[in-house]
Design goal:
The protein has no helices and 36 strands. Helices cover 0% and strands 45% of the residues. The protein has one domain: 7 Propeller (Methylamine Dehydrogenase, Chain H), CATH 2.130.10.10. Strands 1-17-18-19-20-24 form a 6-stranded mixed sheet, with no helix packed on it. The chain has a 5-stranded antiparallel sheet with strand order 2-5-6-7-8, with no helix packed on it. A hairpin with a 4-residue loop joins strand 27 and strand 28. The radius of gyration is 19 Å and the shape is globular. It has 410 residues and is mainly β.
């Protein structure tokens, strides 16, 4: 049965080496980097190529394509200017700074920002999509000129914005899981018009979540995997129809799904997070039949997970990194990392796993079933954004700056 599942985790081997980081968690959306010569040691005085201030406050991660870096931000406290910036990847020099929306700020969690969703680049045509949750969504061209804006999809978020969009078959898809509704939305990527809205299966309790969808392919057909409070669903790309669902207890779900070895791996959110491994080849409610394993051992509330080879890697918000057998859930090791609090999602560069704490401690380990530390790096600034990677370069966004570490750029 598993032989019929296309493993998108193998996709990095078919991608050009390290020439783009176009969306949240990179080319596959699963934290796998194909770049080489990425530094394992870095800091304010080590392997620093450039450092540039970024105005405003945002925890969105940087994305990169065609030698350009794109970062979103929210400038102001009461009246927000929601902006997208473009910088040269080689020098950090700003190319443009486009104002997309001016909105009155809404209440948010102290740890969140008003611009937490990560932009997305369509590398085929160079269009950049930027999402600000209930404030609006926009598409700009390479010169920063808006192609379209849509601020008609308002809803009542809880704790602020969160999930990033995904691009599939000409559709820009994102979640609207707030206090007053729970749904998945698809916009026409060329026009910004709504193509479909898919209401989620009802659940009791807190309805809000902040998850980024993941597109997979099962038996030759694409599915949009989208966790939410109380359930994870797989949705048809063309219609938004729910294909299958697994129910669980949990809310405020944040980690982006991971797909490998014929299994979808998700986190179930607050208050007691678990990791579920699910076979995605069912229909309807498959809670009782398709959950292969479940683990509550130091599961993350916030950081997404990572599969390298046969192992699943994760880090809890408290900073315990763990390595599990992806097929069985057996825990190989669990180790306390340095730093206070973890929100950024780990990445894999070759056989190295990179973690980043909220107080700017970057830990690099060797992938494997025994814990082997490679380096511990200290930025000295707060950061909740996730890494971005290019050939020979590591990019880190802090509370007020964007850094490039690695080889000197051409």
């Amino acid at each position: 049965m598993l032989a019929n599942v296309v493993l998108l985790a193998l996709l990095p081997t078919m991608l050009p080496a390290g020439d783009a980081w176009p969306e949240f968690r990179g080319p596959t959306g699963q934290g796998i980097a194909t770049a080489k010569n990425v530094p394992t040691e870095w800091g304010p005085d080590k392997n620093l190529v450039w450092k540039r201030p970024i105005p405003g406050k945002a925890w969105s991660s940087p994305v990169i394509a065609d030698g350009k870096i794109y970062v979103s931000t929210a400038v102001g406290s009461d009246q927000l200017e929601l902006r997208l910036l473009c910088l040269e990847a080689s020098t950090g020099k700003q190319q443009w700074n486009t104002l997309l929306f001016t909105k009155k700020a809404r209440p948010q969690h102290p740890k969140n920002s008003q611009a937490s969703p990560t932009p997305l680049v369509d590398v085929a045509n160079g269009w950049i999509y930027v999402h600000f949750g209930p404030y609006g969504t926009a598409c700009v061209d390479r010169a920063g000129k808006p192609r379209w804006k849509n601020d008609q999809l308002d809803f009542a978020p809880v704790h602020g914005t969160g999930g990033s969009p995904v691009l599939v078959d000409g559709l820009l898809v994102f979640t609207r899981d707030g206090a007053n509704l729970r749904e998945l939305v698809a916009l026409d990527a060329a026009t910004g018009k709504v193509k479909w809205q898919s209401k989620r299966t009802p659940v009791t309790g807190n309805a809000f979540s902040f998850c980024t969808p993941l597109v997979i392919e099962v038996k030759g057909k694409k599915q949009i995997i989208s966790p939410a409070s109380g359930m994870v669903g797989a949705y048809d790309v063309t219609t938004g129809r729910e294909i299958w669902r697994v129910m669980y207890k949990g809310y405020s779900v944040i980690p982006r799904p991971v797909f490998a070895h014929g299994l979808v791996f998700i986190g179930t959110g607050y208050d007691s997070p678990s990791v579920l491994a699910i076979r995605p080849d069912g229909t309807g409610d498959v809670t009782a039949t398709h959950v292969v394993w479940k683990s509550g051992s130091r599961a993350p509330h916030t950081p997404s997970m990572l599969v390298v080879g046969d192992e699943l890697y994760l880090v809890s918000d408290a900073g315990f990194a763990s390595c599990l057998d992806a097929r069985t859930g057996k825990v190989h090791w669990s180790q306390r990392l340095g730093g206070k609090g973890y929100s950024a999602s780990p990445i894999a560069v070759g056989q190295h796993i990179y973690f980043l704490s909220e107080d700017g401690v970057g830990t690099v380990i060797q992938a494997g079933t025994t814990f082997q530390s490679v380096a511990t790096n200290r930025l000295g600034e707060r950061t909740l954004a996730s890494y971005a990677v290019l050939e020979g370069a590591l990019f880190v966004r802090s509370e007020s700056h964007l850094y490039r570490f690695g080889d000197k750029a051409d």
